[in-house]
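Exercise 7.
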Amino acid sequence: MSWRKSDIWNTSLVKRMLESQRVAQSHLFLGHDQQKKIWVAMSMAKALFCNAPGADYCDQCATCRKIDSHNHPDVFWLRPSGKARVIKIDMVRNLQASLSLKSYEGGKKIAFILESDNMREDAANAMLKTIEEPTENTILVLMAGDIERILPTIVSRCQQLYFPLAHKNEIRDYLMDQQGCSPEKADLVAALSRGNYSLASRYVDDDRRKWRDFAVSSFLNVFEGTLDIFEVSAKMDAWLHELVKKTMMSDDFIETEVGGGDDESSEVLSDMEIKALEKGVLIDEARELFQFFQSCIRDIIIFKETQEKSVLINHDKMNSIDAICRQYSVQDLKNYMEYVEEAYRSFHGNINLRFVLEILFDRLSCSVEPV
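Solution. The predicted structure, written as tokens, is:
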């Protein structure tokens, strides 16, 4: 079955809301798939501004093209930026000033606030005022992955819409139809994405998949007794830092996190600020590494209990998973999951990553005794 982005819009609650003409002035899009929320947000803007009837849009007119290129004068986008990767109060105030102006095209205005759970307290209070005292014909859409990090007063004043993760087959179709992946590559990336289009787009990159393959294979080698702890820990640490440098140098990162161009929103960062920003990227990359480890133990437990290959994340490591699950008890595997979580907490406490990995792998290798 071919994949179409329009299917996401056509089956969304947002479209049904527009069709019923029950459009609130403030919305909260919840869910961990940023890409899916952005796709629906773009469709929502097109449906509101395009001359097509109802909650549809043509996707071809000048209005739709402006929205696609983020050049529509009545559609605003706000996301965290700068060294702290947060939404600051001056960013909210600039948005308020833009929304207070008359619509350029004589209709509605809509603002999308990405990662609104990364908003400073003073910025959140300013946003709350905008929600409580909205300007006429203005719609606000906040997006977040963690509702617990948003002011309860903001949550209570927004219409909440949850975006569930997609079925693996949907991701697979997307990868083959839109990303040009082979069936084999699509199967693997769809499993790794866990229903998240954002992760699927990430793992299309060959370097990302090579990194994941090395990390997962090395971790499974702990249970098979074939891991050189110090050599692998050093290699993982070096590889992860190279990924951080690559991310820091990417055009998307420079534009969204540091601030690109010559406008007033651009920042000239000091060496200390750059190091702080690099530390944030390192934490994100390390979190993913430890999630790789957790996914391995998860797969071993699930296959031990169900013997079902189709639900595994790392199904390309089936031979290792099958061998390991026969040797260790579920309780032991749960204990090893705790070891991984403790190791990540240690790293988050500013302990050197290489040192943390050496301790984790040594602890696991000393503990893993076949049943």
